[in-house]
Fold:
Amino acid sequence: MNRKPVINAVAKLARNFDASGNRKSWRLSLPSKLTLISGLLLIHVPFAVTHAAETPAAIATRETKLNPDVLGRFLRTHCIRCHGPEEQNGSARFDRLDYSISDKIEALHYQDVLDVLNGGDMPPEDEPQPSNAELEAVIGELTEGLFEVGKQLASNGGKVVMRRLNRREYAATIRHLFGFEPPRQRIPPDDDVVNFDTVGSRQFFTTSHFDEYYGLAQEVLREGFKWAGVREAVQTRVDEPENNWTNRFRQDVERWKGQTGKVVRLSKMREKYLARPMVESGVYLDEPLRHLSFGPVVDPRGSYRIRVTAGVEGEVAPFRRFIRLNIGQDVLAVLHIDGTPEDPSESVVEIPRPALLGRRLGGRVSEDRTGAWLSHYLNFLERTGEIEKDGAKSQGLIWIDSFSVEGPFYPEERSFFDALLCPVEPSPETPTKIVWNDANARELIERFTLEAFRRREPAPEYIDGLASYFQKQREKGKPFQEAMVDTLAVVMASPGFLYLNEEASSDPDSQMLAPREIAIRLACFLTSGPPDEQLYRAVEAGAMSNQDAFHREVDRLLGGPRSRRFAAALARQWADFTRLDGISVSDKKYPAYTSGLRHSMKQEVIAFFHTLIEQNLPVSNLIKSDFATVNAQLAVHYGIPGVTTNEFKPVKLPPDSPRGGYLTQGAFLVAGSNGERTSPAVRGMLLMSRFLNSPPAPPPPNVPELGSDVEGLATNRKLVELHQTRAQCASCHRKMDTIGLALENFDLIGRYREHEMVWRDKVPVLISGSMPGGEPFNSLPEFQATMMEHEEDLARNMVESLLVYALGRDIEFTDAPHIESMMTELRPDGFRMKDMIHAVASSPLFLRN
Amino acid sequence: MSTIVIDPVSRRSLLRKGTYCLALPFLDSIARAATAASVPRRMVFLGGGYGFTDSYPNQAPSFFPREAGRFSAIGLTKGLKPMERHQEDLTLVSNLTNLGVGNPHGGSGGYLNCGSYREHEAAISCDQLAARTIGKDARFTSLVLTGREPIPGQGAGHGGGYSLSADDRGRSLPGIPSPLQLYRTLFAQKGDSPEQLLERLDNRQSILDLVRIDGSTVRRTLGHEDAVKLDEYFTSIREIETSLQREEQWATKPKMEAPVEEPGAGLTGEKEIRLMLDMLVLALQTDMTRIASYRLPVAPLISSLGITLSPHTLSHYGSSDSARAASETRDRKLMELFAWFLDRLKETKDSEGRRLYDSCIVSYGSNLRTGHGLQSLPALLSGGGAERIKHGRHIVLPQKDTSLANYWLTLLQQAGVDTPNFNYSTEIVSELLG
Structure:
């Protein structure tokens, strides 16, 4: 035998406890062995660790106990002959174990054992092999036990680590200060987001961060100076696209007359286009015109209304009645086209302040479809049976009459920077002047710094330094504004601005945060940005220590125009939109999965969360609700009749509808696929993580790929069963896949189905399985009803998610008693969403450092 | 407490060795390398992301050959076919594993520094070690290049980090992310006169002094753990200062005039890679740098090949025959690019009139062999810079999971970096030599 487990051991040691690795939970600052041993607390872990409610002080350390029956029997049968009292091959022996893990080194030893089993390296081929059932049991036991150990060893005692503003918070902070936002891609990205973007321990700061923050700050400040004291009148700019395009196509045809080669085809295409009936009053989204571009000049501090007047000529399938508005790669809106060219319909979409540095808002209007050419798209639709071949419905086209942009509509209050530079309020007729000059520059620097530092006093020597830096720039001949931009950009690259750090209360015995720090944390939690003026004033008035006033502030920050922002930030992370974005769906197999549809799916989740929060509904609505938050496009996709609106509003569902709840939403169902077919494993994993609050251990490395001998020739259920013939997979997948299969009534892109295609045969979808706890289900409604019984797991997951999001750190076992008391408080009313947010914000975990 | 391993010394001593070797700054070796280096050696490390396509047991091998031996005897697999014209100059090593990395989605993170099992013991990457010794006399001690990924995080198969390289605390170094930025780094720009440059450097120094004042104010209010976090900030400031000092020394020596027009900002995928490699060849030729690492962009390359699968979906190529075909297309394209880069090195002459190829050690690889397997990673080697390495063969090491650190140690020593060990290394890979 040429295997050397010791070398392997180093491999595993390094591997699974790797700081940059996937298993983040293994990362730790390890307390020394000595401190661990003092005060051992034994907790038996049969499969999962129990989260007993203990007082934090009692939990100095704990030991994880593996099941000696499962593990011991296996080791005695298969391992001890070569790794026991007589032989110690590879310097390993297993006859003196107590099956408990209390530190990292012990965990690593067990990890070695797991890894050789996962890799199929042991027992050696010439020895008797364990049965699949034995192997599955022992791998399951080790995997789950070690997963728990990792979480426990990672504890840092619940300390919130100081962190840099994440992208979302940086954007909101700039908006608070300047009234506009830089484009998201320009802000240094968040590193390695595992669950929530607030978790500070996973952030880095490198030399390039400093340069990027400084450079971006300069641009932001220049933009701020440009808009100071300026206010534009509301204008409507109307674009009649035919003026441009119809004439241009005529000229092309004229120009190419008599020529040969490629232009003949192009010319014919234009002639065909020009022969359509309404080219004098509008344009068709047909070759050669795939999309219209628009690029109005805007003020990034204002919101705008885009109005499209359009109709559909001829007959089209219902899902082809949509146009998409893009800005760059981002979808802005999907609009339903109701009318005809003779009687066009008008759609209006509000663009909240565009994230933009500069003035031009570049965008496109196109049919919401896939494929480069319309003919390809129609071809794919025919081949996949979405529309009939050469049917009347393939002939229709979208016709656009006009397109207008109206605005800017300014928010009620001027931005901090605008009002600071030009205290006199401007009007469209009379811009106002900047009141600062070399003589009072120091005061400007000081006032800006105070606000940028979230009203924490900067050190006097810092202000002195900034003032003399400014002066030095002036002496070098820089104009006032440029010198000031360079100086204030230093503030925006300083730790006081970039880092959220919390000063403890002035009383050294109290762990409570100082009132202003609580306000900052609260504002960050609920609005992503710094406190507004009203919150700062509430702090002065003592609201942070007065229960009623505190809850009033929570309600105020959650409500109003900002409420959607909180719902969006929470939803996009809880529902993991990054996973959804990473799924590439083949447009040949699923031509109906357009980028507009994906956008709508995300908006549905955000609107759903928004509704839960606004109406303070029980969290169990995520499992099953009697309403859906869909726009016209999703209503068509889901088969919900009678919805024509472009907005995502709650719609009452018929009682027999399979929809309702996050489980039946497209964003979840697509994320639970591999882009080629539905993935019961991923759906099951997501269900276990979020709905049962028991995430399965991450997949081990070095498990070989399954072959594709059966591709296309088996039902998903059959494929899953094949997957489970390998013990290394079955130990976790049996649970995940079984509940994932409960959602097979929804295809890859989230459409309801009762049959799946296996090669060319229609095979009925069979729903039958059981929960990890054993409760059986035999239909989708039964499955949902069973999940409802686990409502408490979902509620706990939501409370924990809100805590991670709010605190910027992972949940630790020391949090258990606090979470328990929140659960107790929320239980009588059925775990309502807004109540949960209040509970988290007023929890000692949130108010303490 | 119970024990599995009865001889803890064997395991612990390995680790400790690694740790001690990190604690020692390589002062001696730095001094010696400088005098011995009459002929500059150059090292280029390419790779990252997911590995290559594995073979079905009973079918012809896809990328990895099954037997050891000379390529002229065992032939090239279809994945390696594009390397045919270089087959006598190519070495493939099997059975190397990056023992410091356990992330099944992390082909690039910790690749050149062999990861770490504890954060504070993470180490410098081998290219940066070489940069300090054989690279130190060039304008850029090293070039760290990287491709941008449209979706950050695990999706692309890098597994965290910004590039293949890491500083002496094991933190990933930010790389130059686009042809345009590399162009602006390498070639003279407007406003680059020594006076202007010195003034800019002076300005930057004042800015750093200022933020440091605020930093110390913030620090006074912090507990220990937060102070550690803020240290990252201070460290970056110090690093910028070090690079400022270097720039100052070079300020009077003008950069090279750009031989071509500025590249467009929107180039991605294959074009982007070719342009980056092309500029790299020029930088090596003119001795602007002797050391480079390049984390190739994964998602942009795949989509520039017309493959619609995401990198992660593609790594599960077992899901369908079409996915496997796409995965093999990607393999061939990577080998085409690698072969093309070797072409460029062979046709380019250095200042002494020799082939650039002859002074280079070129490595290509990733932590991931295929799919999510970390064992026996792909290790491709070329270049005439290591005289004792005779190319043209597939070497299967007798020891499974031989530490990748041993491999880097061997390459470093062959390049003239005088170091007895590297991170988790136990010995050199003697099979490579002779």
